[in-house]
Amino acid sequence: MTTNLNEDALNELEDNQDGSEELYERFSLVVDRGQEPMRLDKFLVARIENASRNKVQQSIESGRVLINGKQVQSNHKIRPGEEIVVYSDKEVQGEDIIPEQMPLNIEYEDEDILIINKPVGLVVHPASGNPSGTLINGVAWYLLQQNKELNTDELPRFGLVHRIDKNTSGLMVLAKTGKAASSLAKEFFDHTIHRQYVALVWGDVAEDSGTVVAHIGRHQRFRKIFDAYPDGEYGKEAITHYKVLERMGYVTLIQCVLETGRTHQIRVHMKHLGHPLFSDELYGGDRIVKGTVFSKYKQFVDNCFAICPRHALHARTIGFTHPRTRQPISFESQIPSDMQQLIDKWRNYATVKKIITND
User: Which of 165, 227, 280, 286 is catalytic?
Assistant: First the structure.
C-alpha cells in the first residue's frame, strides 16, 4: 500500500513545519534547598543553555518568567523552594518577516490583542522558500503602521502565539504587546484557552459525544503525515472532545473542543475514530468513505468535493482571559460559504433520502 500526496498537500505540511498549534514551550524548576540568594536573571543565565542576560531580562520584563505563579523583577533574589517558570517562544523556522500590505479580516482589536478570521488557503507564517504572502507578513505591516519601532525582540514573530492549518478557516488571536503575548502563551500552555471547531466528517458517528485521548506524532512510515498513538508510546499527548451537532446519513456535523493543540489534531483524531474529515486529502477524506454504489451518488459526492475542495474544518470560537482586564472574553465567527454550502447540500440530500425511504 502506498500513499500519494500532491504538491499542494506537501506544501501545506512544509508550511506547518514540525510544530504544534501552540508556539510556546515551558521551562520550570524548583530552587534547591541549599541555594544561596541570587538575582533571578543571573540564576537563569547559569541554568538555561545559550541564554544571554539581555534575553533573560527581556523575558522577565515582558512577564514570561513567573515565581510561584507571579511576575517579578530581574533583581528578585531567588530563595529555596521557589518555583520558577519560564515561557519561551519557539522560533518558527523560515525566512525573515517581510512586512506586506494585505487585507486582514479583523474581527476585534484593542491595545493588546488582534482577533483575525483567517480565510481558507492563507498560510499563517513564512517557511523556507515561502517568505511572503502569509498572514504574519500582513500582520507585520499592519502593526508596524501603528508602531514603527516594533521588533521581534519586543514581540516575537509579530504577536503569533498559535496557528491553524493553511486550509482550515477561522479565528486566531494575536498579541500586540510582549506582555499580551506572554499572557496568551501561558493560557495556551495551561490549556485555559477555549477553542471550538466545527467539522463535517464521513460516517454516522456512533456516540453523541466523546473524548479522543491519543498521542499524535509523525507517521512511522509516511513521514509527511501524522498518526494517532492511543497507547502513548510515541508522539505528544493530545486530547479532543467532540459532540454531534447533526446527523446526515453518510456524514456527520460535529463540534470539537481542543484540550491540547497538536499538528492536525482534529484531522488525525477523527481519522483514528474511523471518521476522516470530508474532503481531507491527507487523511483519506477525499474519496467516498460511506454511501452507496450508485453512479448518481458518486456524482453527488463529486459535486460536494467541488463545492468544498479542502478539509471541512472551521475554527468557530475562541475564548480566553483578556491579558489586561483579566476578564473572560470570547469571539465567534460564521461558517464560511464553501463549508456552509457543503453542509446545506448534504442536509438536503439526507432529507430527500429520508422522504424516499419512508415512502
Answer: 165
